[in-house]
Design the sequence.
């Protein structure tokens, strides 16, 4: 049994093994040893890409998925997360995928004896998103070491940013951050957007998370795009080999203009596609002895 809570718990070798496995799945590798295994997807926050790519991964591996509805469960009667998961374990389910608004919720699950995969916790960790980002970069450039990336936007509230900054530094990528100063939490060196656009191999944009920090940033969406977003004028200044990434969902004409979403440098929908293969690799790993 192998849980996946945070990438900080994995070695660089472990991470690269997952990436290589994901690429093998993308190239057509078949794996049927998980046929009939049952998995419960428990999403306590809204999700499209993570939730449904896990379902697609489960179906590709022949697993049987059950999707938990928190609003119709005993959670509403005050049942704890641990007791909910322990109940499903007692009913014979083989694995869990959990997204929860509490940072490090998994620390409360030490008595669970089947694999748990973290689909995102609060503003802390999003391991499978970072893995699919790394897979996309590895496919594009072949190697990770020596690349330069700037992550632009709401760093402070982004579990994607926090996970990526830590793991990318560890794997030899030079990581910078940019965007509104009120979202700069000091997790990497700050760089001006115009400088980043000209010098980086990867520009990764983040969604402005209005729902998470409870107030709207003090500028209009058009002003945000002008100051910190990507429009075609900025895209034309990027290095010929540079790419654009975004974990999505994205706010069109806020973080990036409409024409940038699917421009030649954009890898946004490729990231989404890679999410299925990364999650297949993570599910396979969960049952390895």
Sequence:
């Amino acid at each position: 049994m192998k849980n996946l809570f945070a990438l900080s718990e994995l070695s660089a070798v472990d991470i690269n093994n997952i990436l290589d496995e994901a690429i093998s799945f993308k190239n057509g590798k078949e794996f049927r040893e998980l046929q009939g295994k049952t998995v419960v997807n428990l999403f306590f926050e809204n999700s499209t890409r993570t939730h449904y790519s896990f379902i697609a991964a489960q179906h590709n591996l022949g697993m049987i998925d059950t999707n938990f509805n928190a609003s119709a469960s005993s959670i509403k009667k005050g049942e704890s997360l641990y007791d909910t998961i322990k109940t499903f374990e007692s009913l014979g389910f083989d694995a869990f995928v959990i997204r929860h608004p509490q940072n490090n919720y998994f620390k409360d699950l030490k008595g669970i004896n089947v694999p748990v995969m973290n689909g995102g916790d609060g503003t802390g960790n999003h391991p499978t998103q970072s893995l699919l980002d790394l897979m996309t970069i590895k496919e594009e450039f072949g190697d990770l070491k020596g690349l330069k990336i700037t992550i632009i936007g709401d760093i402070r509230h982004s579990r994607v940013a926090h996970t990526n900054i830590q793991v990318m530094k560890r794997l030899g990528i030079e990581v910078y951050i940019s965007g509104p100063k009120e979202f700069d939490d000091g997790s990497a060196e700050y760089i001006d957007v115009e400088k980043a656009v000209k010098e980086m191999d990867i520009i990764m944009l983040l969604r402005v998370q209005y729902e998470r920090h409870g107030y709207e940033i003090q500028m209009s969406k058009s002003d945000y795009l002008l100051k910190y977003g990507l429009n075609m004028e900025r895209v034309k200044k990027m290095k010929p080999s540079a790419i654009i990434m975004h974990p999505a969902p994205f706010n069109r004409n806020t973080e990036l203009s409409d024409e940038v979403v699917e421009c030649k440098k954009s890898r946004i929908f490729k990231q989404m596609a890679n999410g299925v293969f990364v999650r297949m690799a993570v599910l396979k790993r969960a049952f390895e002895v």
